[in-house]
Amino acid sequence: MDATEVLRVLTVLDAAGISAGLTGGWGVDALLRRQTRAHGDVDLGVAAESVDSAIDALRGIGYAVTLDQRPARLVLVSDEGKVDLHPIAWGPSGAGIQTGFDGETFEYPPGSLDAEGVIGGLLVRCGTPSRQLTFHERYVPRDHDRADMAALAEQFGLQLPPAYRD
pTM higher than 0.85, yes or no? Predict the structure, then answer.
C-alpha cells in the first residue's frame, strides 16, 4: 500500500469526522518522517463507535470488508490497498482499550494516538513511539519489525523491548 493511498484513506475518514491514528508499519514510518519499506496494509486505530461510519466512508472509495473479527479488528480491501481497522473504546479520561483475541486487551493511555508524523510531506496522526514499542512487545518479531523498532529506538532514544535486543 503506497503513501498516496494511505493519505487518501486518511482524508476520506477525516472528511467523515473519523479520527484515525496510524499504527503498525506506516505509523512507524510516519514517526520517522520517511518511508523505510514497502507496506502491505495500513493499521488504523479508530473509536469503536465510529467503525460503521468508517466502513461506509471507505466503501465510497472502493473498499469492502473482507474480514470482520470485531471487536478486535476489521480488514477492508480495494484494488488500491488494504486497511486494518482496530476499534478502540475510549473512556472519559482519554484512555482507551482495544480488545484483542482470546481476552487479550491493549491499553491506550491518553494521547497515545496523538503523535505527529509525516507521510508524503503531510502531517498525520499516529501512535507515539513508546506506544509502538509496547505493541511490538506482544508478538514474536519478524525481520521488518526488528528494523522498525531499531529505527524508532535510535531516533527517539528509547530502549528496545527484550525480544528485539541482539
Answer: yes
